[in-house]
Recover the amino acids of this structure.
């Protein structure tokens, strides 16, 4: 899976890359990305960045990031 994903990122068309990114966030594969799905991924990303980043990440940052994104991008409000 890792190598296939890397291949899409490096050599895929823009549509391939967009599909890959969408599928990364669509955890239950229902064709929609919910706030909860995006929050799960964002928390994982923030966890990988670690607690020792500068400036320090606030605990509520992932939720704020997701809320801001959905306010700007969600067409199904």
């Amino acid at each position: 899976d890792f190598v296939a994903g890397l291949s899409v990122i490096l050599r895929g068309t823009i549509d391939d890359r967009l599909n890959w990114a969408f599928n990364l966030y669509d955890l239950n594969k229902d064709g929609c990305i919910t706030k909860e799905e995006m929050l799960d991924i964002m928390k994982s990303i923030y966890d990988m960045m670690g607690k020792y980043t500068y400036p320090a990440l606030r605990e509520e940052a992932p939720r704020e990031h997701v809320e801001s994104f959905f306010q700007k991008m969600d067409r199904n409000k």
